[in-house]
Design brief:
By secondary structure, the chain is of the alpha/beta class. The chain has 13 helices and 10 strands.
Length: about 300
């Protein structure tokens, strides 16, 4: 179809090799305008071949797009890409409608209306940090039994750690407090129903979409201070951030949950929702992408 622009969307860098191979294909097709979107933190160059290949990519790509500032810096530092070619465009989400009310969810799970509802959504894997969250609940059970009895955690998602996490819940007596809901096509229902959304990832995040989903629904958010998460949430204003230090994360999560339990006014949730519409709305994202496209067309006209 001889496109004026080819827009490549990769999970990270190098990420899927097919994405970088597409740059070669685009050049063979005679396409002069290539946009390369990188949606995670870049890894270091591991070989001399990487260096030569990155030089080719850098030379032939018109613009790189990253969601977070840290992702931008990593492309410069680890892959030696031209800073003038890297545009930062914060992520957005398509807002979803709620199909299950909180009342329907708590009735289905036999949860009390007075319970303190936590929700975490994500692939069940080590890097997503669900084990640290479960360990934090166990710590709360030892130090604040009355609070622990009121806490119910909804874990939405599946993955390779599911069996291990379920065994942990059983071994530490968390059975009545933790609900494994598996993959849910409408995870937004559970996000909307919760009192506190928790995102305890420890590595390999950029600007998580699920955090934006929680922001859009005005939820109080507790998350680790990783990459673009600190750009999504202002610590102490529109959410609480804790360090992704595996030595202290359990205690930090436990202490934060207890503090939020005692101060449930959702003022941070209100600020999170305001911040979402100010910085991460569809229109802001769309206008940013269109501006990049237009800058390419304007540059072509001047050549």
């Amino acid at each position: 179809v001889s496109p004026d622009i080819i827009h490549i969307n990769n999970g990270g860098y190098p990420g899927a090799r097919s994405c970088s191979t597409m740059v070669i294909a685009a050049k063979l097709m005679g396409c002069k305008n290539i946009i390369y979107q990188v949606n995670n933190i870049a890894h270091k160059q591991s070989s001399l071949l990487d260096q030569y290949f990155d030089k080719f990519i850098n030379k032939n790509v018109s613009f790189f797009i990253t969601a977070s500032y840290q992702s931008k810096i990593k492309l410069i530092k680890e892959r030696k890409f031209n800073i003038e070619k890297i545009q930062q465009v914060p992520n957005t989400i398509l807002e979803e409608t709620i199909s299950l009310s909180k009342e329907e969810i708590i009735n289905d799970l036999s949860i009390k209306k007075t319970d303190f509802l936590l929700c975490s959504v994500g692939f069940l894997s080590k890097r997503k940090g669900q084990l640290f969250l479960l360990a934090a609940l166990h710590q709360i059970s030892l130090k604040h039994l009355n609070i622990f009895e009121a806490i119910k955690l909804l874990l939405v998602g599946d993955g390779e750690e599911e069996k291990y996490l379920k065994q942990f819940v059983k071994d530490y007596g968390l059975d009545k407090n933790v609900f494994f809901l598996g993959y849910q096509n409408k995870s937004i229902n559970y996000i909307s129903a919760c009192d506190l959304f928790v995102f305890p990832s420890i590595v390999d995040e950029d600007m998580p979409l699920v955090v934006l989903s929680a922001m859009s629904k005005g939820k109080t958010i507790l998350a680790t201070d990783l990459a673009g998460i600190q750009e999504e949430i202002e610590d102490g204003v529109s959410g609480i951030l804790v360090q992704p230090n595996t030595k202290t994360l359990v205690s930090d999560l436990a202490n934060a949950i207890v503090n939020i339990y005692h101060n449930r006014n959702n003022s941070m949730g209100v600020q999170a929702q305001k911040r979402f519409y100010k910085l991460f709305s569809n229109s802001i994202y769309g206008n940013s992408i269109v501006n990049i496209y237009n800058s390419i067309f304007m540059k072509n006209k001047t050549i």
